[in-house]
Every structure is written in C-alpha cells, then in structure tokens.
Specification:
Blueprint (H helix, E strand, L loop, with lengths): L3 H13 L8 H5 L5 H18 L13 E2 L11 H15 L9 H12 L2 E2 L6 E2 L15 H18 L2 H15 L24 E3 H18 L2 H17 L1 E3 L2 E7 L4 E5 L1 H18 L2 H18 L4 H4 L2 H17 L3 H18 E2 L4 E2 L15 E2 H16 L3
Antiparallel strand pairs: 1-10, 2-3, 4-6, 5-6, 6-7, 8-9
Length: about 400
C-alpha cells in the first residue's frame, strides 16, 4: 500500500481543493476532471472503505456489510459486497503508476472471497453468506456466482495466472445448473435466480451475467461449449425480457408474470455480452445490437434523475460494459454520461467527514447523511472512478 502519510496528504489535498482537478472543480469552474484526479478519487474512496468497513487480516480480510454495524446484523458482509470490494481493488491494481501498491490487497481480497465457497456434495457454489466455520451459510445465488467468475477473469487477463481461469470455469459450471429445462413454461429457458426448489423466476441479471461469463471464457480458451451457452443465454434475454432496445425486464415468473422493473446493470450485461460475441465471432449483428441497446438505454436513463436514482452498484456494471463497447465502437456519450454521474455523486453523496458515500435505502438517489454506509456502494464508486481514470476517450 501507499505510505499512509503520503495518502493522508493526498486526501487532504483532494478535500481542500489543492489539486488542480479537485472535487467539484468540473462543476464549479467548467474545467475537465483529469484521469489523474479520477484516480485520486478512487484511491481516497478506497482508503475510506478500508478505514471504516474493512475488518483487517485478523478477521480474514472480510468486510462489514454496513457501518456503523448494529447488534442484529451479521458480523461480516454477504458475498456480493465482498465481491465488489475485490473488484474495486482489482481496478485500483490496474491504475497506471500506482497499481503495484494494490497487488497484495488483491491477493487478500480473492482469498477472502473464496471463504464463501461451499463444496457441498453435488451442488457446490459460493454461498450468499459465509459457510462454517465463519458463518451460517446461505443459498447459492447464480448472479453472485457469475460475477465471482467475471472477477477471476479480470484477474486472469491482468496476470495470466491459471488459478483464476480455473476458478472462472468453475463458476461457469455452477451457473449452468441454473438453466431451466422445462419446455412447458412460458418462454421456455432462462436462468433461475437461486439454487432452490422454491425458485419461481428466471431473471435477466443471472441470464445476462452468465452469458457474459461464458462469452468471455470463450474469448480466452475457445471451448465451443462456452460459445454455445453464451449465445443461448444471451438470446433468451433478448427474446423474452427485452421490452424495448436497451430496456430489459427484471424477470419472468414460472406462471408467465413479468416483473417489468428496469435496472441499468441488466442492460449493461447484455451490451457487454453482445460486444464480446461480436469480437469472437465477427457477426456484425451482435455489434449492431450492442450499439442499439447502449444508445437507447442512455436516452432513457439520462432523463431526469433516472440514472442518479439507480443503485450505484448497478451503474458501476453499466458503465463498465459501456467501456467494453467503447473499445470496439467509440462514442464519447458513454464516457460523458459516466462522468456526469460520477461528478454528481461525488458532489452530493459523499460525506466529507469520513469519505463514505451514503444513499437512499435503494442504494441510489439523494444523499442520506444519517444512513449506514455500505461496502457494496462504496466499492461501486471506487470502480466507477477507477474506470474513468483508465479511460480517457
């Protein structure tokens, strides 16, 4: 890690406006926030995460779900926030000039994330909460497992270490169990949300994220089973849950009822998957679909406070996938939208006393100064800032 006194100096400079692109500079003076300033915001926000939510190596590198923790809450976070803290740390490790300082932290994050893996006979997977001896365990949510796999693929692409490709392939095998095989159900197919006989819905998030995992695995090792599943899962979302370009319904129940709630990350997963499928197949249809979904969804989400009101973590997924598309088919609107959102959240939702971001109970919207700050959304903002620091297009 960076020397603590150096980081403190940096934090104070950011907070007091001593840096040339300090917080609010873009809003207050019209100057463009530089990639260096975005990196500084990512690092300072990470410091706040570590100070207030990280439990230290003596607690196996785990995190609180929220701070301040109440007596009735679990002593550690669920898997999803742990994964997002790992993803945020990986993003920091890839920042030019400072990334090496975070390599040890990344190793610890991935070791801690593995504590959620339950090797139960026949149906292994990452539990939603820590299994014994660290916790009471939980269900295997397939969306959680898909994003764990995507995290390991990110690390594999950075390091080439085979263990991460192995872990990503492992999570692919876990999520394949989620595919519904009952031909009698409305719009047959789709991925179950949770590995439980009580599951009643096939969800856009699981299906899209699993398709993205399979597509990215195929891009690495060209195993045809990955490509076949990526196409099948992607097409189910496209056919069964795409209410309009870039706007995917949340889920389809087994009785045919559709939950039409819209989330930015459902569009993001489909944009990223389509872009990867275009890159690995050369089929222009996938690129055209990705562009249409991106452009139409941006038009929708930029209206009023729609984007600001979305959970910060969902927007982190969305912007990350817009960057994937931007690498293939550049469009300044993708970055400009992310910048506008990040500036607004930095200005409105950051509590200056502790550097933590606080939102409404949904995880988005207006600042809630008395709310508990969450590992999930703090990690989301680190990811967004780090993404802007590495993408200057």
């Amino acid at each position: 890690m960076v020397n603590k006194s150096v980081r403190l100096t940096l934090a104070l400079a950011v907070l007091t406006g001593a840096l040339s692109a300090a917080p609010g500079a873009a809003a207050d003076s019209g100057r463009k926030t530089t990639t260096t300033a975005w990196a500084e915001r990512a690092e300072v926000s990470y410091d706040s995460l570590q100070e207030h939510l990280y439990q230290g190596p003596q607690e196996n590198g785990l995190y609180l779900e929220k701070t301040p923790r109440t007596e009735e809450e679990n002593p550690y976070s669920y898997l999803w926030p742990m994964r997002e803290a790992a993803a945020a740390t990986i993003d920091l490790s890839e920042l030019p000039g400072v990334g090496d300082h975070y390599q040890q932290d990344v190793a610890e994050r991935l070791t801690s994330m593995r504590l959620y893996f339950n090797p139960r006979d026949g149906r292994p997977g990452y539990d939603s909460y820590l299994p014994a001896p660290y916790g009471h365990g939980g269900d295997v949510f397939y969306d959680d497992n898909a994003i764990v796999g995507l995290t390991h693929l990110d690390r594999y692409r950075s390091t080439g270490e085979s263990i991460h490709l192995t872990r990503a392939a492992e999570t692919y095998r876990i999520v394949t169990r989620g595919w519904d095989t009952d031909p009698a159900k409305p719009c047959a197919g789709g991925m179950h949300w949770v590995d439980s006989p009580d599951n009643y819905m096939r969800a856009a998030n699981v299906t899209g994220l699993s398709a993205q995992l399979a597509a990215e695995l195929y891009a690495v090792d060209r195993d045809e089973k990955y490509l076949a599943d990526a196409k099948k899962w992607y097409e189910w979302n496209w056919s069964c849950l795409r209410g309009a370009p870039g706007l995917y319904d949340n889920s389809l129940d087994d009785d045919g009822t559709t939950n039409k709630t819209l989330w930015t990350y459902n569009a993001g997963a489909m944009i990223g998957t389509a872009t990867t499928l275009y890159r690995v197949t050369g089929d222009r249809t996938y690129l055209d679909r990705a562009v249409e979904d991106a452009n139409t969804s941006l038009t929708y989400w930029k209206q009023g406070d729609r984007l600001y009101d979305q959970p910060a973590i969902f927007n982190a997924f969305y912007f990350d996938n817009l960057r994937i598309l931007n690498e293939v088919r550049p469009d300044r609107a993708y970055r400009e939208t992310a910048v506008a959102y990040a500036e607004e959240v930095w200005k409105k939702n950051r509590t200056s006393a502790d550097g933590l971001f606080r939102f409404q109970p949904s995880g988005g919207g207006d600042h809630a100064p008395d709310a508990q700050a969450e590992t999930l959304h703090q990690s989301a903002m680190i990811q967004i800032f780090a993404g802007l620091a590495t993408d200057a297009s």
